[in-house]
Automatic annotation (TrEMBL):
One Gene Ontology CC term in the entry: stress fiber
Source taxonomy: Eukaryota, Metazoa, Chordata, Craniata, Vertebrata
Family label: Belongs to the GAS2 family.
Ranges for domain GAR: 188-260
SMART domains per UniProt: CH, GAS2
The name this protein goes by in its record: GAS2-like protein 2
Compartment list: Cytoplasm, Cytoskeleton
Gene from which the chain derives: Gas2l2
Residue ranges of every copy of the Calponin-homology (CH) domain listed in the record: 20-147
Keyword field contains Cytoplasm: yes
Superkingdom of this protein's organism: Eukaryota
Gene Ontology biological-process annotations: actin crosslink formation; microtubule bundle formation; protein localization to microtubule plus-end; regulation of microtubule polymerization or depolymerization
Keywords carried by this UniProt record: Cytoplasm, Cytoskeleton
Record-level Gene Ontology MF annotations: actin filament binding; cytoskeletal anchor activity; microtubule binding
Pfam families in UniProt: CH (PF00307), GAS2 (PF02187)
């Protein structure tokens, strides 16, 4: 049936895409960090006994100790873990030993890393898989905090640091803290980001298309407001920096594009638009560049046609 075909191709809904992308990123990060046999599909199975989590906590404590000895001046201004965590490496899934490991890790996160309850998870969230979202958000927050004293960070955290640095440069602000020596970051592939964004936006087939205007590389203005969003490529996902976290662009559009979001207020506002407002096309004629006159390849199109939500003056065809 069509429904079964869709499920086989898209195993997760739009609202779950960001969680899938985070698990994928964290799995690859842990695999590189500890040479684990872990993938996004086995993410919970590998971590549910708590043994890897406790070993990870002890490794973070070890890195923090080395950092405190190497940079005592900076370390005084950071919250560094002072002790590790007890661990039963032979714990089996679903056992009391596994629960003890996970509980010890949770207490360590609260006490030694000062992770707030809003970003924490409970033992049963992982052992019985009651709430994978809270578990994933906690791991990502732990990675952010450990990156402050030199721990290798997942790709999402690296992209967050790049965006924060870009904002500081735009606002002419000093660096947040003393820059630390970090492992080399993977180069960001943004050359086809515009095409990928355009592909997702173009799925809207309404006469009035939800506008996304490129401001600079990886930065767009969305809708009729002055809202600016940062967009990055994470493997096969287009991620949007939202507040203190991430979302996929597809889910972001589902929530903000009036023609496809599920909000009742958005749909009612959309229905009240007049036909004149709902069919708007805007055309710009771009002057030929000097490169084109010299016979070199033309980098920009000569004619741009787009659809806009804002009313436009009538066009004499």
């Amino acid at each position: 049936t069509p429904g079964a075909a869709v499920r086989s191709i898209r195993p997760y809904q739009s609202s779950e895409q960001y969680l899938y992308a985070m698990k994928e990123d964290l799995a690859e990060w842990l695999k590189e960090l500890y040479d684990l046999d872990i993938e996004v599909g086995t993410f919970v199975e590998v971590l549910e006994t708590g043994a890897v989590l406790c070993s990870h906590a002890n490794n973070i404590t070890h890195v923090a100790g080395e950092f405190a000895r190497a940079c005592p001046g900076v370390a005084r201004h950071l919250r560094l873990p002072a002790t590790g965590v007890a661990c039963n490496l032979a714990a089996q899934p679903g056992t009391f030993q596994a629960r003890d490991n996970v509980s010890n890790f949770i207490q360590w996160c609260r006490k030694e890393m000062d992770i707030k309850d809003v970003l924490m998870f409970e033992t049963e969230d992982l052992v019985l898989r009651k709430n994978e979202k809270n578990f994933v958000l906690c791991l990502l927050e732990l990675a952010r905090r450990a990156a402050r004293f030199g721990m290798r960070a997942p790709t999402l955290v690296q992209m967050e640091e790049e965006i924060e640095e870009e904002l500081r440069q735009e606002l002419d602000l000093p660096p947040a803290d003393t820059p630390l020596p970090r492992p080399p970051r993977k180069p960001r592939d943004l050359h086809n980001l515009d095409q990928m964004v355009q592909h997702l936006v173009s799925r809207c087939t309404c006469p009035v298309q939800f506008p996304m205007i490129k401001i600079s590389e990886g930065k767009y203005r969305v809708g009729d407001s002055d809202t600016l969003i940062f967009v990055r490529i994470l493997r096969e996902h287009i991620m949007v920096r939202v507040g203190g976290g991430w979302d996929t662009l597809e889910h972001y559009l589902d929530k903000h594009d009036p023609c496809r979001c599920t909000s009742l207020s958005h749909k009612q506002a959309w229905k009240t638009r007049s036909p004149q407002q709902q069919v708007q096309h805007e055309i710009w004629l771009c002057p030929a560049s000097k490169a084109a006159t010299r016979g070199q390849p033309q980098p920009q199109p000569l004619l741009l046609v787009s659809r806009s939500q804002s009313p436009l003056p009538p066009v004499a065809w």
